[in-house]
Structures
1.
Amino acid sequence: MDATAIICDYAQVNGGKLYIVGAAINLVGTPSAAPPHPISLSVGVLVTIPWNAHNQVHRLKISLVSEDAVKIPIAHGLPGQVVPEEDEGSVTAQFNAGRGPLMQAGEATTLPLAVPLNVAVPSLGGYSVIVELDGSEMTRAKFRVLHSAQISSAVNT
């Protein structure tokens, strides 16, 4: 299996298609000079499921980590729900993709996902969205958070 992650302003899945707006972000401005630093982004994810991986249960995990490997919570479990410690703060899901009636032998399926990242990060600097499938890291999308004034002064000089 394979996955691609794209940092963007907004992402939505509708009718089996991934719609993204303002894609390929690598710098994010935050209005707050002092921590915490609020950010509002989305990550569009495309999971490619090869022919031989259909009709099986798979596990997906999406996490946000700082450049110092500190996990930033992007999701919370339901009250009373027991969440394994390694999954706390991550978006997790199980899925089982069946083979469609029009598929030909050897074809892959694409599973689109959209995950909002409306969080406050503890510091300015680098962050990565990590997508794992069945316990293996498939992709990492990196971006850097700067104070909006830093971006404005760099653009205006």
2.
Amino acid sequence: MSGEVLSQNEIDALLSALSTGEMDADELKKEETEKKVKVYDFKRALRFSKDQVRSLTRIHENFARLLTTYFSAQLRTLTQITVASADQIPYEEFIRSIPKMTILNVFELPPLDGRILVEVNPNIAYSMMDRMLGGRGGGSNKVDSLTEIETKLMSNMFEKAFESLREAWSNVVDIDPILSDFEVNPQFLQMVSPNETVVVISLNTQIGETSGMINICIPHIVLEPIIPKLSAHYWMQSKTKEKNIKEIVEIEKKIKHADLMITAELGESNITISEFMQLSIGDVIQLDQLIESPLIIKVENEPKFYGQAGKMNRKLAVQILDQYKRGDEIND
């Protein structure tokens, strides 16, 4: 029984046996501590590493935050949705663990193959629908007698809500969630073979005073093309690249608006300190620059271009002729 998901009937039978004395809780604990051999079920193959399951958990933690924001705005009441667990189990085991009558939304995720199943506790679904219709959000469980109007309202509500799945998965793959089916009886759904491994993301959901679970069942066939992208190495690498690109773009923006001091040097001349001390207004200093020779244009006191002096719109100007090259640059 260790590691298995019990159905509601099995849980009730176990509690009943404990209460009637047919089974002793202390003996169960003793057996559990003494048991050293771990049973391995070959039909329950683990096809995802812990690292990949953690990546899926991070994706759906973001999805839970998006759902919290969406439902809080739509239902106008306190809404809290968090990831409770992420496990990989056979599809048959997942179907046995959910109620016999519940709210089931089947989504396609093109371009990925296959479909995913979103199971919503009826109390939660009815509470959401009641709030959207102006009620207080009281929970109910009459899923076996849904009217056509209630079915349409619920399917539309969850179809719009799960558009947030596109944003949550955007770092891994671009998907387009499409609601393809709405059902209340899990026995009528056979998306994959009973032994197919699925990842089940369970979301704790609180709508006002009503609480329940939303379970997202993702078959292996859906995730198979993107499994390499679920590794921590891929996430760290992609985030580092994205961060570096953003930093480069930000630096380029700031550089483009930086102010620079540009000067055009008309020439040079060497004089003695004595001559410098005797300079007065009207004196002329002879430069070593020929009038037909290009001027050196400096940017922040660094020689960068050759140019020639002139006028433009009745103002002094300098025209760029060529790039300034040092001796080693000329040799290259």
3.
Amino acid sequence: MDSFILALFSDTDKLRPSTLYQILIGKRTSSVLSYAFFYDRLGLFQAMPQLNEREYQQTIADLIQQGMLSRDSDGLLLKRTVANYEQSREMLLHQMDYFRYGRTTEEAWRFVRLLVQAAAYQGVTNQYIPVENTPLYTEPVRRLIHQYPEIKKITHRELSAVFDQLPAEVADFLAGTLSGPDLLGQAFFQLLPESVQGKPWDNLYVGAAIHQFLALVEKEPQMVLFQGLSPFLNRNLNQSMLESRALFLQGASVEQIMEKRRIKRGTVNDHLIEWALLDPTFPYQRFDTALLNKLPATSWKNSYQELQELLATDFLTIRLLQIAQKRGIRC
């Protein structure tokens, strides 16, 4: 656990341990989500929903005592690292995306495993033991096979295209769980590299591998794989946010969304901010993007009061402009 806690922190930015805890357990507020995004921890959102706060705080206290973390009123700063820290940190920050895929990570891969198995046995035999037997997985697989008689060729082609884009280690890890007439897939715990066999790295490594796969599939909506995975991907999204997004895309203002949906301004603000964090194509042009030129560098390190005085605009506009700034968007 020590190496994981250390990987949460930075040697350049002082970070608040209480907010990092809220990120890990998945406290879905716009302030927590924005903080995670600005400090490159959004992929960890809801990565450890069962994390015990007392144990978390005790680990931090021990690391401070050991001189690996330093504390002041602004937060914690990384001072020293442990073995394999750099490799762990790279995986932690750049490969996981629990914010986008965390709710259905396991379910999505269980669907893929059954689809691949059913496709592999097509034209060979229908007498085999399926890796899944619940309708959540069998029904969408059955529909795809009925809709696409060439599912065997399609699945092989699409899987090859996705695996070719993954790091070889990740592709081999995921492929090792797949089954067919001449191959019995293994469980993830049997395939884990030795360096990640301890808690919590084992679960996080599996999540990171699946998330990379799903991100590539999501970029190709014409794929049959995407069609089959869509119900699992969509269940990760805040459905209330999607309703507000639909109205905004139809041209509704914040006030009109409030009236039509009978929700508070703060709720609409949360929905638009969450949408912007998810979607790099968010329509920032609906707001005063000329104010981007007035934002100080790394504006999220400034207080809201300072930014409000500088820009003389509302909270939602400031937050959306900060997200655009972090993404490197210019007016």
